[in-house]
Amino acid sequence: MSIGSFVFMLHSHLPFYRKAGMWPFGEENLYECMAETYIPLLNAIGELHDQGIKAKLTVGITPILAEQLNDEHLKEGFVKYLDSRILSVTGDLSRYPNDSVAHSQHLEYLAKFYFNWFTGIKECFLNKYNKDLIGAFRKFQDLECIEITTSGATHGFSPLLGTDTNLNAQFKVGVESYKKLFGRKPRGAWLPECAYRPGYEATSPEGKKYYRPAVEVFLQNNGIEYFFVESHQIEGGVSVGSRRSIGIYGNIEYIPLPVREATGLDTYEAYYLPEAQVAVMGRNHEGGYQVWSASDGYPGDGCYREFHKKDDKSGMHYWRLTSPTADLGDKMLYDPVLAMSKINENSDHYVNVLYHRLNDHKMATGKDGLLMVSFDTELFGHWWFEGVEFIKQVIIKLDKYQKDVVKRQTASEYLDENPPSTAAALPESSWGQGGHFWVWQNHQTEWMWPIIHSAEKRISQIVGNYSTIPDDNVLHRALNQLARENLLLQSSDWPFLVTTWQARDYAIERFRQHQENFERLAAMIENHCVDQAYLESLESVNNPFANIDYRVYTEIKEGTLPQNEAGLAPLYT
Q: Domains in the chain, please, with CATH?
């Protein structure tokens, strides 16, 4: 008596933080997410497996994040971070109880809670996972508990890249990184920022017309079979990005764009795209909104831990949200038991929501439906401290109460059983405010794009002179490092952080540094005089994609694509 399938997708991404600051922006942001999200998520998947339940989560890990999780410097830095947290909370244990401090016994209880929590995370990292979180994710994929998807190498904003060569390289390098780390080819991808554009006719600087294919062509060219988008990208109407959400996306100025007409399509099935046999799934609005909305979603409940208020000595989160209108000074102390009780209540409600959404669709159409929800993984645990337990409880309850009614499936499992029968034409769109590209291309960030486009053209010109790997090892390394710096320059995180003012100065500094690295290295290569000491300094810091081959920028010319690994003919000429 199935009524449909539930696909729970988690998109994991952070900027490249390695050796680029610590706090408030830099490596510590990665360490917080490792402690609060990635390790708890792995623990939950493992605990479910021990109970005989396969989580069936679709977990996206962007290549630039995966490279960092696999980096020895960052692994050691994470252990030091945990030690610093344990030391800080140990100091609180010596402060409490204290008769001169209100509620000091409760504060002592919370300090013990965090001491046990941080020591438990350290124990898992060192002994359970042997410092190898990528290996742990890979193991659970091999056990068919999860499916891991990829993305653009550095989360470059695909539609705004100026050349096909660079757009193809983002996904080519991302796929190669995935194969190295996870031992297989990825089937699915997360479009950075859910940013999509269809094909269009472009004009070269010489005035020649040529066709720039849709984004899905580059995905198929690199063996990707499907990707995800927001509900409005399929259904039309108003972008849900215009609503306030939990996490780092809640403070963006909203610039409305014309409302797109309703398409007549819905998100209860997957679709093919017009230019390639690549499937697309749209996020179910009601299923997603119930979780990520700051005003109406579960994470906004007053029982849950307050993210923004910390102890002024230890930095521990000792308070709860209390109410949406409570000032930081009016926050009540956190109660983990009360919070877990609320998780039980919210997960019950969410399972009921999922059932009724699919059942209503089945009653209306007579067909089993797809209910796909996608979230930033870091929402669960990092922003919403109790969120990983919410995921676990939802999976347990679906398995117990709806096992034969709601199919829990990974994205590939759903598509294998339900290959699309209809094509959908998507417009230029993203998850961002207004549903378009404004968050990444606006009056605050417009200066960035000519720099990115100039680097795109320059790297193609440079590597075009070296279709064969040079015998000069230093030159070869310089060409590969140039490719890395170009990819890092393209990261969508830099314009995003400028627009949101979350880390404006940091983002500008990072962008300018990668620009300087690229231009200085490019000039050395062009002048046949590479400074080996300078090259080594870059390699010691900006080291992702160790096996990168700079010739990825020689594989195609504008207006043509090579055959992909499956032997498919070029999709356009």
A: 7-285+375-435 (3.20.110.10), 448-554 (1.20.1430.10)
Whether the model clears a pTM of 0.85, i.e. scores above it, the answer is: yes
Q: Which residues of 293-324 are buried (b: 16+ CB within 10 A; e: fewer)?
A: beeebbbbbebbbbbebebeebebbbbbbbee
DSSP character at residue 425: -
Task: Name residue 384's beta-bridge partners.
Answer: 380
Tell how strand 271-273 and strand 276-282 pair up: antiparallel
Identify the active-site residue in 32, 71, 216, 376: 376
Q: Distance between CA 466 and CA 469 in Å, rounded?
A: 6
Q: How far apart are CA 60 and CA 374, in angstroms?
A: 10
The C-alpha atoms of residue 219 and residue 271 are separated, in whole angstroms, by: 15
Q: Is residue 99 among the annotated active site residues?
A: no
User: How do residues 281-328 score in pLDDT, each as one tens digit?
Assistant: 999 999 998 998 767 899 999 999 999 999 999 999 999 999 988 999
- Considering the candidates 27, 71, 92, 193, report the single residue annotated as catalytic: 193
Backbone φ, ψ for residue 316 (5° rounding)? -75, 150
Give the list of residues 6+ apart from residue 335 with CB closer than 8 angstroms, or none.
303, 320
Assess whether 193 carries a catalytic annotation.
yes
Helices (H), 366-447: 387-401, 411-417
Per the CB < 8 A criterion, the answer to whether 423 and 238 are in contact is no
Closest CA to 68 of 35, 118, 36, 27: 27
The label of the residue with tokens 């020895």 reads 72
Closest CA to 284 of 237, 247, 238, 234: 234
Q: What is the pLDDT at residue 566?
A: 42
pLDDT, one tens digit per residue, over 220-273 is 999 999 999 999 999 986 654 433 344 444 444 545 556 677 888 999 999 999
